[in-house]
Structure formats: structure tokens, C-alpha cells
Specification:
The chain is α/β, with parallel strands linked by helices and 256 residues long. The chain contains seven helices and twelve strands. The structure holds S-adenosylmethionine. The site of S-adenosylmethionine (SAM) has 19 residues, from strand 2.
């Protein structure tokens, strides 16, 4: 099973419309580090566009043409000065060359976790290293594994999407997950259920595999790729990582 990121492009923004709580943290570090900054896995520009609106010169890289097309569509509605601050690249984070250096490179919203093998993870960190200025920061936000979360349980993934895909339609997204503990991989299946306005029902399923990491392990991965962790947060409010924290947000610099 190969991850298919184009599959989310149509409903990604509607689905994540209310998720904005991470943006202030990315903005804070973008301002602190200074422009230009690079977002790896920028998707539809959920974070990238608000940062550009705040005056940040930002490049976004993503492998999915369809996700980037959505970002471009949204950019059209922005003022010229905002558009000028944004550069989009269709490329693979496992190996990229933008011929430019950045003061901040960040990988938000668990996106690094789609890199399942050590080779893929090293490839991405190696490319990031080459694109980071000497004093620059690398930030990666991944989830803090909670292996007590029941497997196979169907969970709602947020509010009903009204008028999606068409006017009068109602779409609800659910997911379930299973662990491959030997490989440290979570297998997630999303069920995108649509009740059409004419009473017909459609289900689309999307599979996603994500590698989960433990805190010391990730610290070590960063270290072995030339970085050292400076700060580690457990949530977007910068609270320290604790047992119950939902995320692990690493702030790293180049190792001297
Ligand atoms: C969860 S979305 C995050 C989008 C955006 N950063 C946000 O927070 O809304 C993950 C994104 O990672 C992208 N992606 C997955 N694998 C990638 C790869 N190897 N190289 C570049 N982008 C990748 C997908 O296309 C998708 O747009």
C-alpha cells in the first residue's frame, strides 16, 4: 500500500478549517529566525498563507500536485505583496535541491511520519541540513505515541462537512487504526462517507501508513543527521513534553 496524498486534496481544507492552533507557534519561530523560511509538506497552504500574510517570505514544498493546486487557487485571492512572498515547489522531501538556504525549515502536522524507512528519514534530514543557514533552526512536529489508544475502533474525524462534494451533500469522515509494533507503524484507514442530497450513499476509503517515534529515538535521529535538539515541546502552547502530551515538537539546530 502506497500513501496517496492527492486523495485528500478535495476535502482537506474543509476538513481542517477549524484547525489553526498550531499557526501561532510557526509564526513565532518564523519571526524569531527571520525570512526566508521553508515549509516541507506545505499541502494546500493552511499554514503557509497565514505566515505570508504576516510578512514572512516563505517557500513551500510538497509532492502532491493536487494539494499544491489548491494552495495556488487560494493564493489568487491574496494581495500582490502576499503572493510575492510565496514560492511553491512540487518536490519530494526525501531528496530536494532548491538552491537556496533558509533560516527556518519546518515540517508541521505529523508529515515527517509518512517517511517509513530510516533511508527516507535520513534523506529528508540530509536535504534539510543542506538548505539550513549556519544559525538556522529545524522544527518538526510529530505525534506523541499513545499505544493505549484502542485498535480497530471507528472514530469521528471532526464535524460533518456540509455541502461537500456538492450542495446539499453531507460528508462525515471516520478513521480506525492498527499498530504494527515491530515496525513502529500505524496503519490508518479513513472512511469518507457521503450522504448525497438525493438519498444515495457513497463511501471512499483512504489508507495511510505512519511511522511513530519515541522521544529519545527521535532526538537520536536528529543527532545522527547533524542536528541537536534545543527545545522539545509537548503541544503548540510550548508546554514541556509530559506523559499525556499529544505532540512532540522538536526545535533543532546544526550540531557544532
Ligand atoms: C497532513 S498534510 C499537511 C499539509 C500542511 N502542512 C498542513 O499542515 O495543513 C501532509 C502533506 O505532506 C505531503 N507529503 C507527503 N509525502 C511527501 C513527500 N515525500 N515529499 C513532499 N511532500 C509530501 C502530502 O502531499 C500532504 O500535502
Amino acid at each position: 500500500m502506497k500513501n496517496d496524498f492527492d486523495a485528500y486534496s478535495d476535502f482537506y481544507d474543509k476538513w481542517n478549517e477549524t484547525f489553526t492552533s498550531d499557526i501561532p507557534l510557526w509564526l513565532e519561530y518564523a519571526k524569531k529566525c527571520g525570512s526566508p523560511v521553508l515549509e516541507l509538506c506545505c499541502g494546500t497552504g493552511r499554514i503557509l498563507i497565514p505566515l505570508a500574510k504576516e510578512g514572512i517570505e516563505i517557500s513551500g514544498l510538497d509532492v502532491s500536485k493536487k494539494m499544491l493546486d489548491k494552495a495556488k487557487e487560494k493564493m489568487k485571492k491574496e494581495a500582490t505583496d502576499v503572493r510575492k512572498r510565496v514560492t511553491l515547489h512540487q518536490a519530494d522531501m526525501r531528496n530536494f535541491n532548491l538552491k537556496k538556504k533558509f533560516h527556518l525549515i519546518f515540517i508541521p502536522y505529523n508529515s515527517f511520519q509518512v517517511l517509513l524507512s530510516i533511508e527516507e528519514q535520513n534523506g529528508c534530514l540530509n536535504s534539510a541540513y543542506k538548505h539550513l543557514t549556519a544559525q538556522g533552526k529545524l522544527m518538526i512536529s510529530i505525534f506523541h505515541p499513545d499505544l493505549s489508544r484502542a485498535e480497530g475502533v471507528l472514530r469521528s474525524e471532526g464535524d460533518i462537512l456540509k455541502d461537500y462534494p456538492q450542495s446539499g451533500d453531507m460528508t462525515q469522515i471516520y478513521s480506525n487504526q492498527f499498530y504494527d509494533k515491530a515496525k513502529q507503524i500505524i496503519k490508518v484507514r479513513f472512511f469518507v462517507d457521503t450522504n448525497k442530497s438525493d438519498g444515495k450513499f457513497f463511501r471512499k476509503t483512504i489508507d495511510l501508513k505512519m511511522r511513530y517515534f519515541f522521544p529519545a529515538e527521535f532526538d537520536r535521529i536528529l543527532y545522527s543527521n547533524g542536528f541537536e535538539t534545543e527545545e522539545l515541546f509537548g503541544d503548540y502552547d510550548k508546554s514541556p513534553l509530559k506523559n499525556t502530551s499529544p505532540f512532540m515538537i522538536f526545535v533543532a539546530k546544526k550540531r557544532s
